[in-house]
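Format notes (please read before filing issues)

Several people have asked whether sequences and structure tokens are stored in separate files. They are not. Every record keeps both together, in the order shown below: the sequence lines, then the token lines. Line labels are part of the format and must not be stripped during preprocessing.
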Amino acid sequence: MAALGVGTVETGCSQPSARATPAKPVEQAVARVYGTEFVRPEDGAAVVLIAAKPWLPGGFITVSAGDEALVVPVHHLRVAPRTSPSWTGAPVEWSLGDTIEGELSPGASAVALLPPLPEGITALTIDGAEVRIEAPEDRWPAAPREAMAALPSELVGAELGDPTRAWRVELAGALAGARAGESVDEGIARLRRQHAARWRTALSRLTSVDGALASRLAASLGRVIRIDGQAVPAWSTEHRRVDALLGSLLAQNADGGSLELAAEAWLADEPGAVAWVIDDGGDERPALIGMANLTDAAAAASISANGAVELAVVGPREAIQLAIAQQSGTPSVRAEVRVGDSVFQLDLVAQPIPCAPPGVRMGPLLPEWTMPEWLGERAGTLDAGWATAGLLQPRSGGEGAWEVFLECRALKDGEDTVRLILGPPSKPNGEVRVSRSGAIDGAGVLAGVKGLVREETDRWTATLEIPSAAMAGSVVTIAIERLDARGARSTWPRRVMPWQRQLPGGEIDLSAWGGLKDRDAEGR
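Then the structure lines:
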């Protein structure tokens, strides 16, 4: 990447170098994304532009700043999909490329990097469009009540690559008395600082009307809760809601009542709780339900399933696990979960899965939870190019032995491993790891497991021979985990949190297959 220049000042007595000569202005060739930039003139500015028609900037554009004309470099703005998973569901990562030498297609984005601006400047003109310059607000609103918890970097690092989302990390850090990490790219860092200043200014306008309401809104926008003993971001990422709120708070003619109405509408639309199945349980272990209270007041919680009821209290901005015993003669049970005023209906697997011909299909494996999916703002999806599934069946001629067939689709090469765990989640009996490279490594009752790994064009498969001694008893508990070449983890039978290490297990009734074989023998 070329160095990001800060531009040249053009006065009546001097001219830019030949290389810096701007292209002839093309009327309405570009549009600015924001009508106002919140910067101090001495810090310069980064202005996002979108080509309104085919545009040939020649690497530079002229910006009018009062009586001065600034010839500033224009860089490609690249927005690439993220290939690695993230809890916050950050979909893209921004970067600046070299200065634009060729033509920019309509709709393509660019960034003009402006040098320090003349003192007292209040507006710029770029290709006929005005960009107002306003002083930024320096502080975020104070945290309501006690300070919120600081966030681990591994859960929010993906946000820092997108200037339109990084402000949430900065806000959450400010509410916790901590500081967010910095962007590596200085051009992206400028955009990030300006967008954060945009939100600080918006919240400052509300603070001047109702400081307590501004604090509540800030706590919602940078919401952090405690799950499994650690701080976890839990804020809304629905961009239409977020953009609409920002527009309302920064509206030029908005009075105090309008600002309060916008804030109250956001808070009223926020979810109060989340509930999810952690583990379906089994004959000898209870089902585990996760319950998160997203509000700043303690909430009563309960689970009702098949006549059984469990009660608890969930603290403010906290998540707990509540166990309930399985007491059902049906394959599934619907549990009603209440957290405060929120009610959820969750389906639990209540009986072992019968292993009948052609075998038990274990899959597809499910990706880790992401924040938008966990909050119910986005539907969960499976990437067919990375799908994983297994099949458990008796091994032909194996004297009671079993085999597991695994199929792992893959769109690129790299380290790719599947782990099969046997036994209760809290105390497994054994596990075996098989990798795309062909390595197979077992431990516990699965020590010495053999198998065969095959490579194909868009997938790899593995067949594992499970000895009969490892499958003792009529019911076994199995969990499967894959860590693929993208660094993405998927599991069966339930989704897990990114930080969750104990995997839920699925119970399988092996006697179902034996019963069929016995009836066949009697028939003969």
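For reference, the curators noted about this record: Residues 366 and 475 are 23 Å apart (CA to CA). The first strand starts at residue 8 and ends at 10.
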